[in-house]
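Continuing the batch. This is chain 6 of the set; chains 1 through 5 are on the previous pages. Same settings as before, nothing changed between runs. Recording input and output for traceability.
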Amino acid sequence: MKLSRITEILTFAAMALIVTSIWMVFRYAPVAVDDAGQAILYQKIMYYHIPLAWVAFLAFFVVFIGGILYLKKQDSKYEILAYSSAQVGVIFTSLVLITGSMWGHLAWAPDFGWWNWSDIRLNTTLILWLLYLAYLMLGASIKEEEKRGRFLAVFGIISFIDVPLVALSIKLWASRTIHPAIIKSSGFDLDPAMKITLLFCILTFTVLYVVFLLTRYQLGKLAEDIELFKEKL
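Output for chain 6:
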């Protein structure tokens, strides 16, 4: 099956998943309440914030793997794959920072405000965003193909070190973050309906990421083919 056909099928699947996930977030999952019995409506942000973070990690893992494969095989398709995933990952990380800032402001203000420079998870996520933004800028500025491929591969591999730091920051520096540990060793610390909804949203955003990745990868391959065609003229 052609890649374009797979992308088309996944696009329709993503649309169906998005509609279903919206219904689950606002109709199926119960509204969280505080100790006083007051509804915590901003908790709904969780169903988008956590899946966005998961997809950002996944995107940069693909950059990491793509870099290793490029250095091993010197095939431009791995550079295009890694660069495409970084582009999608930066978008999702931007949304992670936005939703995280909103959630933090509503949940922990005035201690949090709109940004808390002492929060280790927030700051390591910002560093992650800056690293891969720099990755994209370097890719756009280096014109020599072979040099660009090697440089981006190494840069992408090294930058991935920040991903586990973000993921484990709550455990490594528990006293320096106010982020709650929703996912524990025993599983999700959530109501069963909330857990099902969160997992469904993670699936939804994962499929959406794959659609964006395949679309951007095909555009990258097309651009490469056009450049090769121009060189032959």
